[in-house]
Amino acid sequence: MSYSSATSSCIHGQDRTWHGGHPAEDRPGQCWCGGDEYCMCTPSVAIDVVLFSKRKQGDEIDVWAVRRGDTGQLATIGGFVDVGETTENAVQREVAEETGIVIPPRLIQTHGHKRNNQATHSAMKLIGVYSDPRRDNRRSIVSIAYALEFIPSEMTTKDGSNIPKAGDDAKDVVAIPLEEIGSKYTGIIWYADHLTILLDFKEQMFQGMEENIPQSGELFKDVARSTCSV
Predict the structure, then answer these.
(1) Is the pLDDT assigned to residue 16 strictly greater than 80?
(2) Alpha-carbon distance 58 to 196, whole Å?
(3) pTM over 0.85
(4) How far apart are CA 152 and CA 54, in angstroms?
C-alpha cells in the first residue's frame, strides 16, 4: 500500500490486511489513526538485543536468552520502540525490564561518540536491520538488532545480584553457549527469526576464524536483512 493511499483511504479504525508472516499470506491488521482520522499504515519498529557475556576462564561466550511467557519459545531480549525514544534508549529500557540489568547511558553509544576529545567505550554494537514482512506473524515489524556485552563490573542489576533475572513478560532468562546456537539450540524452539539474528551475530563474532557457521533454514534462509561487518 502506498503512503498516499494509506493516508487518504484509511478511515478511523478501519481493518486492513498485510501480506507476510510465515508462511507468507494475507493477515488481518489495522492502521493506527489519530483523533483527526489521519491514519498511518506502516510497519512497527522494534529492537532485538543479543545479550552476551564472556566467561571468566577462556574465550568462551554465553548468550542470555529469554523464554517467552506466551509461546514458551526462546527469544532475544527486545520489544517495540516507544514514541519519543531512540532505539538505543529502547534497548536500555527493555534489557532492564526483561533481565533487571541496568545499563549506564555512556555504554549505549554506538556512533563513536567522543567526550572531551576521548572516545567513549560502548558495550553495544549494531548487528543489522531486519525488515522482512515474513519475520513475525503478529504484524509487519522492522527490527534493529544490537549486540550488548553484559559487563558486571560496569553494570548493575535491580536486585544487586549481578545475575540476569526474568521480568516483565519474560518467563525465564537462560545462558546458552554461543557455540551451541544453531546446533544444539536450533529449530522452532526459537521465536520468529531470532535464530537468524543469533546466527548473524555468531558469524560476526567468528569472522576471520576457521569456524563453520550453520545457516538458519528453520524459518527461511532468505530473510531480508542488512547486517554489519566487524
Answers:
(1) no
(2) 26
(3) no
(4) 10
